[in-house]
Design goal:
The chain has a two-stranded antiparallel ribbon with strand order 1-2. The mean pLDDT is 91. Helices cover 71% and strands 6% of the residues. It contains seven helices and two strands, in the order H-H-H-H-E-E-H-H-H. The protein is mostly helical. The protein is flat.
């Protein structure tokens, strides 16, 4: 069997990937292998959902309804922030992150741990933009497989986003009027 030491295909491919990573990173520590694994995991995740939808035999809509797009957008925003920033969900992130400081009302600033796999998972677990891709895929599949239950949960998370907005607006109004 060829190895990296005897110049076989696997060794040449490994060398190419290492050179590409060094050129790309420009001296910075960029976990490209971890990102590649995350992309492969996401591809497997969405393939599993697509397979479940296909096996269930549910027809795909011709196009998304505007209300569903709005509901999915607000829900994706709220659930992604809840998973990646909320104090209450920090135990889920703790194996892959380090606490840095508070960040906004009931939110935390955390950093990914430096180890390769932990770094990649930590970046995903602390980045609402990154998490949004996974959340919106899950919500979309949920709407296709279990539309009533999914829309009910989405309605609740959208109401939570609205309540959060009202809480922040109220706090800003009180601060403005009282100076406190």
């Amino acid at each position: 069997m060829d190895t990296a030491d005897d110049g076989g295909l696997a060794g040449r491919l490994h060398g190419l990937l290492q050179r590409t990573g060094r050129r790309y990173s420009a001296g910075h520590d960029r976990p490209l292998g971890g990102y590649l694994a995350a992309m492969a995991g996401f591809a497997a995740y969405t393939t599993a959902w697509a397979t479940a939808v296909r096996l269930r035999g549910r027809p795909l809509p011709d196009r998304p309804e505007p209300w569903d797009v709005v509901l999915t957008s607000v829900t994706t925003f709220r659930l992604s922030r809840l998973l990646t920033k909320a104090s209450v969900t920090s135990p889920l992130r703790a194996p892959f992150t380090r606490y840095v400081a508070p960040q906004g009302p009931a939110e935390l600033h955390e950093e990914a741990q430096p180890e390769n796999v932990k770094h990649t998972v930590g970046e995903l677990a602390t980045c609402p933009f990154c998490m949004s891709v996974w959340v919106v895929s899950t919500l979309t599949a949920g709407q296709l497989l279990w539309p009533r239950a999914t829309r009910t949960a989405m309605g609740a998370l959208t109401a939570l986003a609205g309540a959060d907005t009202l809480q922040l607006a109220y706090s800003a109004l009180v601060e403005k009027t009282t100076g406190e």
